[in-house]
Amino acid sequence: MLAYASEPGTAAAGAVATARQPWDLWENGALFHQVCRPLFNGTDLRDLTETLAMEFASTAKAPANFYGGWWYFAFPVDGVRHMPFPFFVRGDDVSFSLVHEFTPVTLPGVMSLQDENFSVKETPLTVYLDLRSHLAHHLSLPQMEIGRMGLLKIILRFHLRSLILCHYDTLDAVVLALGDVRAGPGYFADNADLAARRRDIATGTDMERWRSVAQAAGMQDRLRLPSHRPGPRFLMKCTLNGHLLPGFGLIGNRITLPAARRGAIRPVWGAARITYHSDDGTRSYTVTHSKRRAWAATRNMLGHAWVLWRDYAALRDRWREGYHDMTQASFWKRLLGMENTEG
Question: What is the pLDDT of residues 71-103, one digit of tens each?
């Protein structure tokens, strides 16, 4: 396709689904603005009407914040002006697409298959990687400028989502991500292999660690606050899913959800204990309501958020300068010990 493209900057960004359900599309290209937004998510490829509607819609010119994931992104090498930023292992494909003046298109009938649903793959480590790259995109790329308030919205979205889900190990990882972004791009150069942070997050992950189902046997579900009713759901929203209610850990629901719904908010309103089961039914993990952990992480988050707000202009300038320097071939040669190689 690229060989026959009339526009020299044409790049191919593609579709992806899971191997378990290849007809259920995850994305056909994506957009980034504060969050990653998969395009045509949920399209049923067995339905001719849905598929044709997607293909017709995808012929429109891609907006400036369109990007392609590394699993499926072909681009003209002559148009490369920046090497990938060392985000390892999430975010480098987003910034690579955004920083270049490619003309991305999708290729009908071709897609990549992933082994698992993206929700199943979510862990404290992946949320840490997502948050730090999200903030870095907006700090380092001038065309993605969103200001202090925009960054704060990203931080609050990540924080509140994990708080409502009682994922306190992930909340602690969110705090680590904020500290690393505050440290500037130099932190990424010094810790490109992520070894130290992997250890830190692995050590701090307890409640969200998958265990054999036998270890979690004996727990029964209980429904006292039906989340499908407007009244209880409104109360839970106002109290941050019970975190502002005394004794909520004793009266809240006990529920069980499949791993594919790990990030779903609606079913967890009113829940003080949530158990997630893997697709094969052999593993699970359980998180329980804890005001102590919730407010400790919130206090740390607010401290980082305040410094990011106060020092926003200086931090943005550091990121823009560092991003440019760290996406040059000379940086990667130094990092990989290849200074004496040609090309």
Answer: 889 999 999 999 999 988 889 999 999 999 999
Task: Kindly state the percentage of the chain with pLDDT values over 90.
Answer: 77
Q: Residue with structure tokens 């003309």?
A: 103
Are β-strands 10-13 and 73-74 bridged in parallel, bridged antiparallel, or unpaired? antiparallel
**Residue listed under structure tokens 């891609």:** 62
Residues comprising the chain, all counted: 343
Mean pLDDT of 172-194: 94
d(CA 185, CA 292): 32
Spatial separation of the C-alpha atoms in residues 319 and 325, rounded to whole Å: 10
Cβ 136 vs Cβ 58: under 8 Å: no
Tokens of 267: 């079913």
Given this model, what pLDDT does residue 193 score? 87
CB 72, CB 13: distance < 8 Å: yes
* Higher local confidence (pLDDT), 71 or 29: 29
Q: How far apart are CA 92 and CA 106, in angstroms?
A: 20
Sheet with 30-33, strands from edge to edge, namely: 35-38, 30-33, 66-67
DSSP string covering 16-41? EEESS-TTBEEEESEEEESEEEETTT
The Cα–Cα gap between 203 and 30 comes to 33
pLDDT of residue 337: 86
Return d(Cα 243, Cα 218) in angstroms, integer: 26
* Contact indicator for 73, 16 with CB cutoff of 8 Å: no
CA-closest candidate to residue 307, choices 162, 122, 183 = 183
How far is residue 96's CA from residue 75's CA, in Å, rounded to a whole number? 11
Q: How far apart are CA 206 and CA 301, in angstroms?
A: 20
